[in-house]
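Penicillin-binding protein 1A
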Amino acid sequence: MPKRRKLKPAKLFLLFLAVILIVCFLSGAWLMYISLRDLPAINPASLRPVEPVTVYDANDRLVAQLGNKKVIPVKLDQIPPMVRNAFLAAEDIRFYQNRGIDLRSLARAAWHDLTTLSLSQGASTITQQLAKDAFLTPERTIKRKIQEVLLGFELNHRYSKDEILEMYLNKIYLGDGAYGIGAAAKTYFNKDVGRLTLPEAALLAGLPQAPSAYSPVNHPAAAKQRRNEILGKMLAYKLINAQQYRQAAAAETGLNPPPETGREYPWFVDYVTGRLVARFGEDNVYRGGLKVYTTLDPMTQQALQAAFADPANFPASVRDAGGILQPEGAAVFLDPRSGAVRAMVGGREYTGRQVLNRACQTYRQPGSAIKPFVAYGPAIEYEGLTPDSIVNDSPVSFGRYAPRDDDNRYLGPVTLRTALSLSRNVVAVKLLDRVGIPQAVQFARQSGITSLDPVKEGLSMALGGLYKGVSLLEMAGAYGAVANGGTYVKPFVIRKVTGQDGSMLYQAKPETHPAMKLYTAAALTSMLETGVLNGTGVNARVNGRPVAGKTGTAEHGRDLWFCGFTPQLAGVVWIGCDQPQDMSDQNGGMHPAGIFRQVVSTALAGQPVIHFRSLYPGIYPEPVTPPANTPPLNNQGGGNNWAAGIQQRIYNLFSKLKGLF
């Protein structure tokens, strides 16, 4: 049997080496194959900074940014050379000489990773970092590193060095939600990038390596140490001189963050966000880039928020089991001529994004605030009555239902004007019975109150006893229709929306329709003006400015309302507990009317005074004005006041004259 030949050690080593090389070659080929197979295509849109959704007020001033990303794109020529040099020193000093990758740095990192059996050394050039941020995941794998190199080559081929640097400086994450040098300059120092100092520039340049670990907010000592490392590199690369280094290294971090923005008008912004999502979809909204121009009037909104922040404007309050201050409140103010919502508050305290907005998401019992739309308005519109028409305020029953007033008194024959200004319940029910529930619901719907159901509502609807209730927003639209001469304009908050490229994506078109005849609007306005002059709404008087309005108090004071308007501004204020509770000592003519007065006084300060009669030349029924020194009525009930007495004497005189013919 022949002897088996033994391999010599040298040949055995060469064979082993050959196997290793083949395995490495095949592994490398396989890695290259799967890296190329899954290599993302270069999409130029991904290289541009994605701007956040920005929200502007009625004066086109920025009031909020949606989402957590802070982005302020800047051009390269807006970034001082000193700032650019700080980032080059920190991340890629041979940026303008390499071709997208730095072979020396790559070899050094590869050797470190091989000897430590880790992937801790990145050695990514600025071009590679841009490719990673734009097209790849943050995972640390050999495949991703190969893709990063390949994409770096491609980017270097497609774009100039200045273009790559600009894209990088606008896209790199620098902590605290700031993407790009423009946003970081504003976030940490509240200044434009062109005003950054040398120590500030070096501090920002030290952040890309580890934004959390070197955060100047959370780890100021580490941030300062890292900043001085960058300054040392700049000195070594002769980008600054020794004196500049010493001065900059001795400087404090000097953080000066801007005041919090985006939560300045949270209720309004939340409502705008909801409307955006409903129109464009959540993905399209939060992808960013939209510019949203709203109807928000800062003066009105600030006045409303200030009023709601004052505990004196609410009944005695306690916190419920959930920590929410009760009673709660909400309000909406809009321009009745255009339907533009000028201010909105959905609660007394804002506790977080997209919380319950009581101005539009809840339905409550409106009490007597509904009377103009289900009793008096329909009676004037369909029955031809006027403010001077007489109705007998006397006991009446409709089967088992017998309406009454809180004071258990009856005024006898009264005019519609007196009955509405004093909020007499029996008269309202009689008017609704005369008109009929279907026609009353039709009138209310035409005015924008769409939550009424003619099948489920009864005669108690005249007093605000509704099957479902109403929202503040629809009540504001309805009172706005009266203020607008009988034309309903659907309330809206967004004027227009443009894309990141400036293209028009949405332009508001007012949705209007006739709600009532011109005379009906004039008559309702005149009666509601009397209600503020000498009725239940006297607390809403604004010195020197005509106001029309109506109080509303649900049973046992569970819901308190004031709804009113001037020719320029309509508003609805509500107070009540989230879980309805009795507040029998309260009524809508107290705190809600007072809040209305405060907001209107501030919002219209300096604006011209417009009288209602000027809007209805020749047909406006003049309101009954009390004589001088007449004490105002400050309760919800009836009783003998000046207006009721003189109306009664006029009726008695009319009856006597009638008997002579």
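thats it. Residues 268 and 344 are 5 Å apart (CA to CA). The first strand starts at residue 53 and ends at 56. bye
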